[in-house]
């Protein structure tokens, strides 16, 4: 081996050790830079590629992780960690069938490894479950809204509680009763008696469900109006790890459904001169940090409006508390808070990253479908005073997209894997011009020139987006024309980042960025309700 090449190999090993230390300190971006340097010195070491793949996974850059793991396999087809890292990245993207192939290969290379055996079995279970769900799924055209089967007024007083609409229940009882009487007394007599029975049943049912169980001491909605007093009581209960009664949870989510259904895919927000407006990024189920935002900046109100820019749920284990709080505030005062869809407001993400499991644990199976439906009604983007474009992810794979094109998107569906809607939810900025492949494996990366052209085409001044954890809670890019804001400090209890929000003052809308640190929360780990298989890789 030539002397220079030998020196490069030795130097690469030294840098790998530094990269490993950065990784252990949760400095994943730094670790990636160091692994990259090691690869530049010695690209034929599969370990460097697999280690960089692992660091990409920690930053949720699953597309880059798959590329690096694939390169590790090319360098050494017998290196099991290459398949392992690629399988884990596929898993994180919900691509269970692709993950299964890689874990089968890991098992083939390491037949006596108990860890490989365990993960393969879990992956096989996940694929079998996926096939079963596909087999029993109802075609989209034949599906009915789960909301049609819920009457929240009839929920609460056992044993009379039911998800069945009251009218349906009474009708069913009356029909059965009339049929029995008709056989005994004849049709005329049966009809008269049945009329009396229906009145009695209706009075009993409605009267019996007027109140929830007497032992429930939590927040209550009086009638149909969500008040500030209710929201404050609910937030205090959540802070003390108490649950909201399902009746009121249904009421909040159903009211949100009605409200969001009529909103456009792109919402225009008007902030009067002399007023302010706050934009928050990802919260990701970190309820106690959400409370801290309200402590620092005040509760949402007509005088103190907010926009939460998607990814309210998943990863953090207080996602139910977060989403019910945001929804209740919107019900209380629609102009006090605006909500945008993020890539985690989707079935596939919720199934993997914890929200589905948390909803089943804290509420019920019926809420899983209801939340999934309501998430499809969330708007995709907002424009503040015709100048600031706010979106969860980013821009597009094609030039010339106008605001009218975004408004025209039919958003009432699960996010597709390509197209404008997908890119709004998934794309990321990049430091160099043009467009490039997504480091996430979905959407794309776009440069400052793409940002500039979009702003010029639509007579806008600034893009605000979220979607990426940042060390300071925010990052200003693309010649000051794009700001990323992320509002989940110490993300997943391990990233050590600050959180941030942006406060705009009208009319100039100059962004004032406020950063904040994480606050303590009860000892419930992030991902506590996540897919069992995924938790094995945390």
List the helices and strands and how they pair.
Elements (H helix, E strand, L loop, with lengths): L2 H22 L3 H14 L4 H13 L3 H14 L4 H13 L3 H14 L4 H23 L29 H20 L1 H22 L19 H12 L6 H16 L4 E4 L6 E5 L6 H11 L8 E3 L10 H14 L4 E3 L7 H7 L1 H8 L2 H11 L5 E4 L3 E4 L11 H5 L12 H7 L1 E2 L5 E3 L6 E3 L1 H10 L4 E4 L8 E4 L4 E4 L13 E7 L4 E7 L15 H4 L3
Parallel strand pairs: 1-5, 2-3, 3-4, 6-10, 7-9, 10-12
Antiparallel strand pairs: 2-13, 5-6, 8-9, 11-12, 13-14
User: Helical proportion?
Assistant: 40-55%
**Low-pLDDT sequence parts:** 158-170, 193-210
Instruction: Give the biggest beta sheet.
Output: 6 strands, mixed
| Average pLDDT, all residues | 89
Q: Mind telling me the C-alpha Rg? A: 27 Å
Strand content: 5-15%
Could you give the order of strands across the largest sheet? 1-5-6-10-12-11
Helix count, DSSP H or I runs of 4 or more residues: 20
Report the structural category. alpha/beta
Distance N to C terminus: 40 Å
Choose one word for the global shape: globular
Q: Please tally the β strands and state the result.
A: 14
EC number: 3.1.3.16
Keywords: Cytoplasm, Endoplasmic reticulum, Hydrolase, Manganese, Membrane, Metal-binding, Nucleus, Protein phosphatase, Repeat, TPR repeat, Transmembrane, Transmembrane helix
Subunit structure: Interacts with PHYA and PHYB, mostly when they are phosphorylated and in Pfr forms.
Catalytic activity: O-phospho-L-seryl-[protein] + H2O = L-seryl-[protein] + phosphate; O-phospho-L-threonyl-[protein] + H2O = L-threonyl-[protein] + phosphate
């Amino acid at each position: 081996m030539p002397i220079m090449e030998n020196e490069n190999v030795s130097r690469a090993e030294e840098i790998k050790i530094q990269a490993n230390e950065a990784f252990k300190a949760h400095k994943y971006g730094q670790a990636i830079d160091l692994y990259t340097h090691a690869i530049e010195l010695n690209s034929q070491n599969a370990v460097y590629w697999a280690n960089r793949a692992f660091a990409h996974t920690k930053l949720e850059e699953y597309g880059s992780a798959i590329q690096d793991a694939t390169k590790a396999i090319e360098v050494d087809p017998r290196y099991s960690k290459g398949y392992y890292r690629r399988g884990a990245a596929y898993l994180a993207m919900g691509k269970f069938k692709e993950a299964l192939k890689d874990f089968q290969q890991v098992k083939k290379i390491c037949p006596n490894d108990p860890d490989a055996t365990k993960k393969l079995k879990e992956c096989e279970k996940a694929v079998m479950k996926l096939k079963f769900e596909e087999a029993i799924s109802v075609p989209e055209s034949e599906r009915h809204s789960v909301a049609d089967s819920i009457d929240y007024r009839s929920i609460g007083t056992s044993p009379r509680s039911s998800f069945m609409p009251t009218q349906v229940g009474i009708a069913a009882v009356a029909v059965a009763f009339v049929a029995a009487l008709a056989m005994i007394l004849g049709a005329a007599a049966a009809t008269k008696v049945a009329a009396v029975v229906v009145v009695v049943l209706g009075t009993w049912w409605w009267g019996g469900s007027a109140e929830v169980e007497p032992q429930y001491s939590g927040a209550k909605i009086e009638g149909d109006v969500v008040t500030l007093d209710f929201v404050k009581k609910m937030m205090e209960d959540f802070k003390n790890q108490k649950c909201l009664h399902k009746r009121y949870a249904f009421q909040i989510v159903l009211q949100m459904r009605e409200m969001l259904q009529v909103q456009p895919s792109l919402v225009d927000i008007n902030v009067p001169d002399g007023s302010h407006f706050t934009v928050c990024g990802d919260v990701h189920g970190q309820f106690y940090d959400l409370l801290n935002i309200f402590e620092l900046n005040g509760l949402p109100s007509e005088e103190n409006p907010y926009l939460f820019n998607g990814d309210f749920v998943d990863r953090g284990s207080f996602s139910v508390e977060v989403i019910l709080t945001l929804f209740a505030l919107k019900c209380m005062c629609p102009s006090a808070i605006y909500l945008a869809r993020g890539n985690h407001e989707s079935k596939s993400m919720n199934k993997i990253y914890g929200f589905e499991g948390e909803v089943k644990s804290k509420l019920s199976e019926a809420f899983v479908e209801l939340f999934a439906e309501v998430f499809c009604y969330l708007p995709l983007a907002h424009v503040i005073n015709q100048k600031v474009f706010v979106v969860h992810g980013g821009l597009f794979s094609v030039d010339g997209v106008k605001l009218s094109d975004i408004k025209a998107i039919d958003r009432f569906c699960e996010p597709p894997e390509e197209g404008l809607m997908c890119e709004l939810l998934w794309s990321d900025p990049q430091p160099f011009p043009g467009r490039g492949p997504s480091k996430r494996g979905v959407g794309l990366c776009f440069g400052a020139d793409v940002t500039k052209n979009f702003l010029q085409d639509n007579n806008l001044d600034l893009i605000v987006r979220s979607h990426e954890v940042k060390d300071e809670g925010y990052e200003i890019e693309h010649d000051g024309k794009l700001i990323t804001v992320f509002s989940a400090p110490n993300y997943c209890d391990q990233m050590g980042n600050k959180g941030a929000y942006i406060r705009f003052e009208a009319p100039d809308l100059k962004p004032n960025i406020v950063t904040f640190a994480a606050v303590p929360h009860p000892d419930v780990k992030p991902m506590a309700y996540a897919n069992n298989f995924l938790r094995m890789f945390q």
